[in-house]
UniProtKB/TrEMBL annotation:
Residues 12-485 form the Amine oxidase domain. Pfam families: Amino_oxidase. Coiled coil: none annotated. SUPFAM superfamilies: FAD/NAD(P)-binding domain. The keyword Transcription does not apply. One of its GO terms (biological process) is carotenoid biosynthetic process. Belongs to the carotenoid/retinoid oxidoreductase family. Keywords: Carotenoid biosynthesis, Oxidoreductase. GO terms for molecular function: oxidoreductase activity. Pathway: Carotenoid biosynthesis. This is Phytoene desaturase.
Length: 490
């Protein structure tokens, strides 16, 4: 055998790393704190309803295909994917409703209705976005960085201006579109990065290529099917998966990992890969002298939002909704400020509503709809039962009015909430962030925490808080990068 590996945490990154290492001949044990694997991509079931608890968008199918290729597998042999068309519906505060279809001609016509010439500018914007995506994904994203000089290389100097690395998204998008609704449509994807258009580098306009050109997909059965597939492939690769087994300490001897202590015993390891949040790994699992990042470092980080989530089972059909729905408040700047600058529960929030039962009847009983309602909120906000009851009532009232479902609250047959304290308790998330470190310029690429410990030999990190960042596709790339570190040392 090539060696013994313990993976801490069975999120997408941890499962992906375990699959790759198992198929590379390592003896791998994956330790998962909770009762099932999946991390934030988890599952909730109640009275015939089945909710994906976290990620609900299947984006960047090319990344999934590349990862499965590494395993010698084909996505189509494991997942039945359906491209959604329309991709999503947007409800504006003034009552305007618009569908984005994923068909460039139709979407260009929609843009033209709001602003003369915007259709042609959308085509040009997406042409450049596709080019920037190809450059980023071939040259910058799937790379391990050991120093700032590896990032600021001749290729970046050559391509940096075309990627708009040092420009803000808000400024970049404003050069193409004047109408505030069009700018919101273009920039909403930053939510997937846990960031604000006022601080995110324009490099991330590549998300428009992901949205409009690559399309929005749905795996039959729901997002948790991805987790089931990765778990099965991991077991087939010889990985031992131990659930309900939280790690208590990473044991270090002579500056090198020797294993992981848990309430169920000690697991010896030559290599440890932690899919737990880097903050939790460093401050709870390692002795102080072996931490790569200080408390001061973490206090100065910009966290992605937490989330106030309501899982609803609703009686009757909701033809007003598509699979994916977005409500955009009028005053975006105030909404983002309440998340990033002066933390408070947004008084008039933007809201995401997923209704997967419009696509997949298996996720709810016959004659019912399944709703996942998410409001981005600041991390670290107070969170108790009374706040949840009050804020859930506010959000459902808003949706009743703005999504034209006047009897929504009367039709609810089951309701669960999940918010900041759940992210902390269930996923050991720093300050209850739903996603981890936001994608600001100072927290992208080489500026994110390294996936290799500076202080402990044989300790590696994988997941959203290390390179390349947030989202299921990025976590799969992170798994590949961690695998390269372990197997090839680079």
């Amino acid at each position: 055998m090539a060696g013994r590996v313990v993976v801490i945490g069975g999120g997408i990154g941890g499962l992906g790393t375990a699959c790759l290492l198992g198929r590379s001949g390592y003896e791998v044990t994956l330790l998962e704190k909770n009762e099932r694997v999946g991390g934030r991509a988890n599952l909730l079931e109640d009275v015939g309803f089945r909710w994906d608890m976290g990620p609900s968008w299947y984006l960047m199918p090319d990344v999934f295909e590349a990862f499965f290729d590494l395993l010698g597998e084909k996505v189509g042999d494991h997942l039945r994917l359906r491209r959604l068309s329309p991709s999503y519906r947007i409800f504006f505060e003034d009552g305007d409703v618009v569908d984005m279809t994923g068909d460039l001609e139709a979407d260009a016509e929609t843009f033209e209705r709001y602003e003369p010439g915007a259709g042609a500018r959308l085509r040009e914007y997406l042409r450049l976005s596709e080019y920037q995506y190809q450059v980023a994904m071939s040259q910058f994203v799937p790379r391990n960085y050991d120093s700032i000089f590896e990032f600021f290389n001749p290729m970046l100097l050559l391509k940096g201006s075309s990627l708009h690395v040092f420009e803000r998204m808000e400024d970049y998008v404003s050069r193409y579109f004047s109408h505030p609704k069009l700018r919101k449509i273009i920039q909403y994807t930053l939510v997937f990065l846990g960031s604000s258009p006022y601080t995110t580098p324009a490099l991330y306009n590549i998300m428009s290529h992901v949205d409009f050109n690559l399309g929005v997909w749905y795996p039959e059965g729901g997002i948790y099917e991805i987790v089931r597939v990765l778990e099965r492939l991991a077991r087939e690769s010889g990985v031992e998966i131990v659930t309900s087994c939280p790690a208590e300490a990473i044991v270090v001897e002579g500056g090198r990992v020797s294993g992981v202590s848990t309430s169920r015993g000690f697991y010896r390891a030559d290599v440890v890969v932690s899919n737990a949040d880097v903050y939790h790994t460093e401050t709870r699992l390692l002795p102080p002298r072996y931490r790569s990042y200080s408390e001061r470092y973490w206090r100065r980080r910009t966290l992605a939002p937490s989330a106030f989530i309501i899982y609803l089972g609703v009686r009757g059909e909701l033809p007003q909704l598509l699979h994916h729905n977005l409500y955009f408040c009028e005053d975006w700047r105030t909404n983002f400020a309440q998340i990033f600058d002066r933390p408070e529960y947004p008084r008039n929030p933007s809201v995401y509503v997923c209704c997967p039962s419009r696509t997949d009847p298996s996720v709810s009983p016959a004659g019912h709809e399944n709703l996942f309602v998410l409001v981005p909120i600041a991390p670290g906000l107070p969170d108790n039962d009374e706040i949840r009851r009050s804020y859930a009532a506010r959000v459902l009232g808003l949706l009743s009015e703005k999504l034209d479902i006047p009897d929504l609250r009367e039709r609810v047959v089951v309701q669960h909430t999940f918010s900041r304290r759940d992210f902390e308790e269930r996923y050991n998330s720093y300050r209850g962030s739903a996603l981890g470190l936001a994608h600001t310029l100072s927290q992208s690429a080489v500026f994110r925490p390294s996936n290799r410990s500076r202080k402990v030999r044989g300790l590696f990190y994988v997941g959203a808080n290390t390179n390349p960042g947030i989202g299921m596709p990025m976590c799969l790339i992170s798994a590949e990068l961690a695998w390269r570190r372990v197997v090839y040392g680079k």
